[in-house]
Automatic annotation (TrEMBL):
Family membership noted in the UniProt record: Belongs to the FAM20 family.
Membrane-spanning residues: 6-25, 312-334, 340-361
Molecular function in Gene Ontology: ATP binding; metal ion binding; phosphotransferase activity, alcohol group as acceptor
Keywords from the UniProt entry: ATP-binding, Disulfide bond, Glycoprotein, Golgi apparatus, Manganese, Membrane, Metal-binding, Nucleotide-binding, Transmembrane, Transmembrane helix
Tagged with keyword Ion transport: no
Protein name per UniProt: FAM20 C-terminal domain-containing protein
Organism from which the protein derives: Scylla paramamosain (Mud crab)
Signal peptide: none
Lineage: Eukaryota, Metazoa, Ecdysozoa, Arthropoda, Crustacea
Protein location: Golgi apparatus
Residue sites binding ATP per the record: 171, 187, 287-290
Principal location listed in the UniProt entry: Golgi
Co-factor(s): Mn(2+)
Gene Ontology cellular component terms for the protein in this record: Golgi apparatus
Sites where the protein binds Mn(2+): 206
Length: 365
């Protein structure tokens, strides 16, 4: 039939266009390197001294940085924009450290305020209601969060009423209902803090303490849109399994040594990737579930990749360029004036990367 022939013609044309576009995106030059070229000052003795370290920056133990991979040469050829951006930022860091060697006079006050919010207890008799009142579409925690210690304390200690599988996503997790009606997500520890996962940048599971680091870093940068998270030790035998749903309970089993293990339900969850307690308890992180009154919109992840070595995600490089533009135009107006008033936008980007890689993302608060 004529319409079948026409459909086949359009399919062939579409495939040819897609292949041509993919080839163009993979072969074009790295525009981001040009954008970041102004970040690099003339090489000094200090930068030359650290040049060899910059070449191996991925091996310094950062949790979320790109690391050397099996296909490193291929990645450098076809993803040079990101690679050059990271090298440019690290090359710029020595100058940042020298220029801002003296801390801001407001830094001590800021840290003191944030610490007081976390450590002060007894402010609120109903921490769940307090967190619900704080939450709005632009912020989950106010700048001065009196009672935050009570909310985090409740997340870490409130009795678990029920537990269920965490459907959706790629990571192992458990949905919890805490006493008082608060919903939360428990993500168990998968690696020791000093353990480095070799292989591709997407290999391995999420770091549980990354949830805690992200929350506190969001407050430090005055971008409080990260859900509240706190570390918690649980007993799989006493706290989770007795109140578990049938679907979750079927994923539990006992090792010969007496350890209780489970593997949950998720995209990559299976018995070979199970998590076990130490014979008594299991470390993890509890993240507060967003209140029902907040409207949510499902958006495509901007850093989504194809996982195919010969196919480049079309939006990846464009969004990297947009990130710099967005940071230079929006962050400059959203950060408190007293926080990083001495930093230029370019310096702020480098400082942000350094903070993420060397402090908050490396250990649990």
């Amino acid at each position: 039939m004529w319409w079948v022939q026409q459909a086949l013609v359009w399919l062939v044309l579409g495939a040819a266009f897609t292949a041509a576009l993919n080839f163009f995106l993979m072969s074009r030059g790295p525009p981001l390197a040009t954008i970041l070229s102004h970040l690099q000052s003339p090489p000094s003795s200090s930068s030359l001294e650290h040049h060899s370290l910059h070449q191996q920056v991925y091996l310094r133990g950062e949790v979320y940085a790109l690391r050397n991979s099996e296909y490193l040469n291929w990645n450098q050829k076809n993803r040079t924009g990101i690679t050059n951006a990271i090298h440019a930022l690290y090359d710029h860091l020595p100058g940042v450290k020298v220029r801002h060697r003296t801390p801001s006079p407001h830094l001590h006050s800021l840290i003191h305020t944030l610490r007081q919010d976390i450590t002060t207890r007894g402010v609120s008799s109903d921490p769940w209601d307090l967190a619900k009142k704080w939450a709005n579409p632009r912020s989950l925690v106010p700048g001065s969060a009196h009672g935050l210690g009570d909310v985090l304390g409740a997340l870490a200690t409130a009795p678990i009423i029920s537990s269920d599988v965490g459907h959706g996503g790629t990571q192992l997790k458990i949905f919890l209902l805490l006493k008082g009606g608060q919903r939360a997500v428990f993500k168990p520890i998968r690696y020791l803090r000093e353990e480095i996962i070799e292989g591709e940048i997407y290999d391995g599971a999420d770091r549980h303490n990354g949830e805690v680091a992200a929350f506190h870093l969001s407050r430090l940068l005055a971008l409080p849109t990260v859900p509240l998270a706190v570390g918690r030790w649980v007993s799989l035998r006493k706290h989770i399994l007795p109140v578990a749903s049938k679907e979750l309970a079927t994923t539990f089993f006992k090792m010969e040594g007496g350890e209780v293990c489970f593997y949950g339900v998720c995209y990559y969850c299976n018995k070979n990737e199970s998590v076990c307690d130490n014979g008594a308890t299991l470390e993890g992180v509890v993240t507060m579930w967003l209140p029902p009154h907040l409207p949510l919109t499902q958006l495509h992840h901007p850093w989504a990749r194809t996982y195919i070595r010969t196919k480049l995600a079309p939006l990846l490089m464009v969004l990297m360029e947009f990130l710099l533009f967005f940071s230079a135009t929006v962050f400059a107006h959203s950060l408190p004036d007293h926080t990083f008033s001495a930093l230029s936008i370019n310096t702020y980007l480098c400082f942000l990367l350094e903070v993420c890689l060397y402090s908050a993302c490396y250990k649990e608060w």
